[in-house]
């Protein structure tokens, strides 16, 4: 038997810092991928019958609602990627520009999701030939949760409400957001507790 000799570990030269990896990605490449995803999302919407509903006003509003929901979800996913601290994104754009883009994409995402809700509800009400206000309940959300509980719903309900107390403190005061969390979990059965 021949004895095996383990290779000697490489010695580092003192004072030498390893260089960061350079990624072969340009800003234009990333923009093309993002734009391609937008086209792909729109094409999938068309492929699954999106254009079939454009013959009425309700259908047009519903289609706009569907597209704003799809693109709003896409922008929300993009925000996660922007703040993921990926080295190739940091190399191409820098963290300052990524944070700036994340901030503005946040506003766009919020408005797209709000528009999604408005257009979907309005489109469905035009399609059903009803007023938008017919389906809105005259009771608070907490009362709806209590009625679901009373009807035997066995789900945990979490409601989050918030209000800005600026109007209470005057214009000179700082913004302070008051958040209340109201929870109602499943109630234990009689005799089980």
Overview of this protein structure:
- With 193 residues, this protein is mainly α.
- Helices cover 53% and strands 8% of the residues.
- The protein has helices spanning 27-47, 57-82, 87-93, 95-128, 141-150, 166-169; strands at 157-164, 177-184.
- Strands 1-2 form a two-stranded antiparallel ribbon.
- Helix 1 packs antiparallel against helix 2 and helix 2 (57-82) runs antiparallel to helix 4 (95-128).
- The longest helix has 34 residues, at 95-128.
- It is elongated, with a radius of gyration of 27 Å.
- Residues 161-166 have low confidence and may be disordered.
Main sheet record: 2 strands, antiparallel
Q: Nearest-angstrom radius of gyration?
A: 27 Å
Shape: elongated
Average pLDDT metric? 75
Report the total helices: 6
Q: Kindly estimate the percentage of residues that lie in beta strands according to DSSP.
A: 5-15%
Straight-line N-to-C gap: 72 Å
Report the structural category. Answer: mainly alpha
Q: Estimate percent helicity.
A: 40-55%
Strand order of the largest sheet: 1-2
Given as residue ranges, the uncertain stretches (5+ residues, pLDDT < 50) are 161-166
- The helix-strand sequence is HHHHHEHE
DSSP strand count: 2
């Amino acid at each position: 038997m021949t004895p095996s000799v383990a290779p000697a570990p490489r010695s580092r030269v003192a004072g030498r810092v390893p260089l960061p990896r350079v990624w072969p990605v340009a800003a234009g490449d990333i923009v093309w991928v993002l734009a391609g995803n937008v086209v792909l999302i729109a094409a999938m919407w068309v492929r699954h019958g999106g254009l079939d509903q454009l013959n009425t006003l309700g259908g047009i509003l519903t289609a706009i609602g569907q597209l704003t929901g799809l693109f709003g979800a896409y922008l929300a996913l993009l925000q996660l990627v922007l703040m993921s601290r990926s080295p190739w994104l940091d190399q191409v754009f820098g963290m300052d520009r990524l944070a700036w883009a994340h901030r503005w994409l946040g506003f766009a995402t919020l408005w797209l999701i709000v528009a999604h809700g408005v257009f979907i509800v309005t489109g469905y009400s035009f399609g059903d030939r009803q007023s938008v206000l017919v389906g809105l309940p005259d009771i608070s959300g907490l009362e709806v949760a209590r009625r679901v509980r009373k009807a035997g719903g066995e789900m945990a309900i979490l409601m989050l409400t918030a209000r800005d107390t600026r109007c209470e403190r005057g214009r000179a005061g700082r913004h302070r957001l008051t958040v209340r969390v109201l929870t109602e979990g499943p109630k234990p059965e009689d005799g089980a507790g």
